[in-house]
Amino acid sequence: MDFSFSDEQQMLLDSTRRLLTDNYSVQQRRQIISSPEGYSRSIWRQFSELGLLGLNIPAEEGGLEGGAISTLLVCVAMGEALIVEPYMSSAVMATRAIAKLSSSAQRSEWLPRLNSGTVIAVLAHDQTNGAAAQAVFDDTVAARSQNAWRLQGRKAIVYHAPLADVLLISAKLDAASGTGTGLFAVPRDAPGLRLEAFTTVDGQRAADIVLENVEVPDHARIGGDVSATLPMVLDYGAAALCSEAIGVLDKLFSMTVEYCRARVQFGQPIGRFQALQHRMAEMLMHLEQARSMAYLAAFWCESEEASRRAAVLSGAKVIIGRAARFVGQQAIQLHGGMGMTDELMVGHYFKRLLAFEVRFGSTESHLQEYAARFLEPDRDGL
To answer: pLDDT > 90: what percent of the chain?
Structure first.
């Protein structure tokens, strides 16, 4: 099988890397994290100018319509740079949700602004807080009220919610309003909506969202019952997150190899010690296995075969999650005590991998989900 990328895809990757190399140094990243906003408007504008914000917008709507493979490549570069901007939350997941689930009028309203970077949208959907592979929507309820909807509930650890202009909130319809799950576009400053904001372990902004009788007009509902279609968006986002993790792993591995070549002990570089060479070889094996699974996830994340798609994404999350734990721990140990200091970036990459392990379901929960497809007789397997 040919895993090489087209010339256009390689140019996209190179352009993204060049942009981040020139404008996202270690010092610039630290300044962005410590800023009140928690992200760089300048970088966000440059993402738009390069077309990265329109990568998941159809061509007829003014986007690049790059699809999963182009998104994979861009997210790899984002992982290498360890960005804290809401690229995956807004340009991938929220944009994908609007492009795939909304009406023509809603796409015309939202997609141009998402493409230009003047609006940031965040998909808020999962109350599981990393405890299970499959998202559940029962904690947030939507009730019909004349020509409006009233939302009540809570969303936990929504990445980049404090940066959003609009939140796409999933909610179970109450008994009087019908069945299924609705998706609603809610302005961040809507009355009754409260954000309990915090900074994650890897330096990104996130929040718990509390909804107390939040009322939105009828046209704020995106699509109809999204119970069957929203998981496709979530799987697409999970594949993008896996790709970002590959960028982090690549960078962490190369930093570790370079350190072992430069660090001298007992009169020679520690990279010459056979025991350490074996550990680095194991790191490389985990990295390449993870890369293969990220490619597989990108290939399947747009499939309409729900069972197969979910199984592949769970498998990818397990393999990449285990690689993240092993490569991260080995990198820290090979760097010694300095590995966890703020002065060395290796610790920051390790923290991003820790966050990856629990986003979109933990490694363990996905392993259980994958196993259940073979052990339960009433479920489809691969």
So the answer is: 83
